[in-house]
């Protein structure tokens, strides 16, 4: 048998052979391709950015401030605050007039939907008054504690109002009270629906910019008022052509009451813990 020849020291190593995985501590170390390295770098960058945003949001919340404090400059925040005050005053005046007209229709025409709308209009007045208090202090435009207190008060008012609306509607259903239809009812329902929907859209837009749950809740109440205003027209028109469907008016009243009740309960569940968390960070005078 012949011995194997020794390796030639002058031989040049093959580059292709050196490109394979290196052995470290008995294990093969894989080398990532440039595309994989770029993907890993991008994912790490996105993760770092998300971590930073979460830390900033948590620090803002720890200071008892709303997210709008990060988005808006001081003069922009004050400008939107004044707009919120103007919208609230306009909502108070308009809904008081609509509430008086709706109560009149409810008494004269025995309409549960009209009563529900009138009560919701009074709720809209109260919610707008709370928004006025919420933004009455210029230095508290970003105050989370003030925001959450306003929402808790709104939640309580929502629950009490929903019980009254459902009570009246259930009473009308139980006694089979038939609504009366005329042009006055149609006029009130159309005007009420349009005014409330317009107010709701404006409040939603301002609430989104100011990150205000109170303004959004006020807008939700105005939207419910608009739906109930149009429901007066729908139920009256249906009863005019199909007297057998006399219960539609009362059923809509019960449904709107349940919606308001559910929103009020959710508002309290969400806001009461936050009031407790931010009571030590109250920064307004």
Provide a descriptive summary of the structure in words:
This protein has 285 residues and is mainly α. Helix content is 75%, strand content 2%. The protein has helices spanning 15-18, 34-62, 68-71, 74-109, 112-134, 144-174, 183-209, 213-241, 248-278, and strands spanning 22-24, 27-29. A two-stranded antiparallel sheet has the order 1-2. The termini are far apart. Mean pLDDT is 76; it is low at 15-30 and 47-62.
Distance between the termini: 102 Å
Strand content: under 5%
The strands making up the biggest β-sheet line up spatially as 1-2
Largest sheet: 2 strands, antiparallel
Number of helices: 9
* Spans of at least 5 consecutive residues with low confidence: 15-30, 47-62
Q: Could you tell me the number of beta strands?
A: 2
Which key terms come to mind for this protein?
285 residues, mainly alpha, single chain, 9 helices, 2 strands, two-stranded antiparallel ribbon
Could you provide a short overview of the structure?
By secondary structure, this protein is mostly helical.
Topology:
Blueprint: H1 15-18, E1 22-24, E2 27-29, H2 34-62, H3 68-71, H4 74-109, H5 112-134, H6 144-174, H7 183-209, H8 213-241, H9 248-278
